[in-house]
Write a structure and sequence with these properties.
There is one protein chain. The protein has 441 residues and is α/β, with parallel strands linked by helices. It is built from 15 helices and 19 strands. Pfam families: DAO. InterPro entries: FAD-dep_OxRdtase, FAD/NAD-bd_sf.
Length: 441
């Protein structure tokens, strides 16, 4: 797949969010001298910027090193869904089996309250990222999905969450989408303009005292002479702690670090703006949703009325045309009314997210005073920020490793058959489509 640096596109070509961001542009100088600080954060996405903000608020001297520009990676390219739920059909009880009750209870609380906390932070720092607090839903497209979705709903309901079950006949009235057998909805979910949110988080981090250096690719992180050291732009930054938060754009900054997550290549596309009359038919309540389809079944609109969709990339010649054709078919399946309108697909872009075997991020102690937070598995919009807050507090010695509600790994955990899984992931899209077509997802 090549290095993560080769995959970074600082021009954000085709990315809708780069052209519609209302937040002021952010710009900073590359690292041009050696540094000695309390904390170095590698990566200026949702996680890295939040880690930096909370560490700086606690009084630490903080430097953020970003290979591209703020938000250029997964954070600024995502669909912007703030979801109060784990990936796919993962239930709270599944998380407890993985983490034990103490950590699971804390992580479940963070996931459930993540969007609300995020929206409050957006308001606190007055970030112009078009926050849309209209709820999020998970509908079932097949009998198999129905059983999973209902089990997920039952557990969240039993935990006292303000969730609602939507019977099949009422799904279309609520979501505007056709073909679903049922759904559950959490009103605290929503959506944001993700690139604008990154710009605002960068501004907030600098307001709190952090220093951000863009176009500053890190080539190596190691412990040397009693301090964590970071090599970047021909200079060395030393720190009491280093946190690597590069997710789907991770290189082997420490040995085998890139193998701790699968970099999955995804695409998004957006239609031209649609009229309020059309939107009132296909998304009557403006609730965003993501289903369990393997080949993508999610939808939201932006403030200008564009419908945004996407899925996994099929890495063969002509893949963009293949993806656009699939996205259009999916939109017509969900919203038959759109076929009459036949909207133009205005923009198309790709990016990478990091998936772990457990579909939960892990916190790795890769060396003395060197840590990584990687693997948000499509749930990074809210979770990367809530976890970033905790890791920032950990960096400031306001909590301990035991307080981090994730699996804490000593050393680097490489995913077995990492290279094979990444290659398969880039060719498996037609198989996913078949699974969806025959009700196997």
């Amino acid at each position: 797949m090549g290095s993560a640096l080769d995959r970074i596109d600082v021009k954000m070509q085709g990315v809708l969010w780069a052209g519609t961001a209302k937040e002021k542009p952010f710009s900073s100088m590359p690292l041009e001298a050696d540094k000695d600080v309390d904390l170095v954060v590698v990566g200026a996405g949702f996680a890295g910027l939040t880690i930096a903000r909370y560490a700086a608020k606690a009084g630490l001297s903080v430097v953020v090193l970003e290979a591209g520009i703020v938000g250029v990676g997964a954070s600024g390219r995502t669909g912007g869904y703030a979801v109060p739920h784990f990936p796919g059909a993962k239930k709270p009880s599944d998380v407890e089996k993985l983490l034990g009750k103490k950590k699971a209870d804390k992580l479940i609380s963070l996931v459930a309250g993540g969007p609300t906390w995020m929206f409050d932070e957006i308001e606190r720092y007055q970030i112009a990222c078009d926050p849309l607090r209209k709820g999020w839903a998970q509908p079932a497209h097949s009998q198999k999905a129905m059983a999973k979705v209902k089990a997920v709903f039952d557990e969240w309901k039993a935990l006292g969450q303000d969730v609602e079950w939507i019977e099949g006949a009422d799904v279309k009235a609520t979501l505007g989408a056709s073909g679903y057998l049922g759904a559950w909805r959490n009103p605290t979910g929503g959506a944001v303009q993700p690139f604008a949110l990154c710009l605002g988080l960068a501004r907030a981090a600098t307001q709190e005292g952090a220093v951000i250096h863009e176009k500053s690719p890190v080539t190596r992180v190691r412990h040397q002479d009693g301090k964590a050291t970071v090599q970047c732009n021909g200079h060395v930054a030393t720190a009491k702690k280093v946190v690597i938060a590069t997710n789907g754009y991770t290189d082997p900054l420490t040995p085998n670090l890139e193998k701790s997550g699968i970099a999955v290549r995804l695409f998004h596309c957006a239609t031209e703006p649609l009229s309020e009359e059309v939107l009132d038919t296909i998304l009557p309540q403006r609730t965003c949703f993501t289903d369990l389809r393997k080949s993508g079944g999610f939808c939201r609109c932006d403030p200008d009325g564009r419908i945004i969709s996407g899925g996994a990339v099929f890495s063969v010649p002509g893949a963009e045309g293949y993806g656009l054709g699939h996205a259009r078919k999916r939109m017509y399946t969900l919203f038959p009314e759109l076929e009459r309108v036949n909207p133009k697909i205005e923009t198309y872009w790709e990016g990478y997210c990091s998936i772990t075997d457990s579909y939960l991020p892990s916190f790795q102690v890769v060396d003395r005073d060197i840590f990584s937070l990687i693997g948000f598995s499509t749930r990074g919009v809210a979770l990367a920020q809530t976890m970033g807050k905790i890791v920032g507090e950990f960096a400031a010695d306001q909590c301990t490793l035991d307080d981090i509600p994730l699996e804490v790994v000593e050393g680097t955990r490489s995913i077995s058959m990492h290279g094979v899984k990444e290659r398969v992931g880039r060719l498996i899209f037609p198989y996913y489509q078949a699974m969806d077509r025959f009700g196997l997802s």
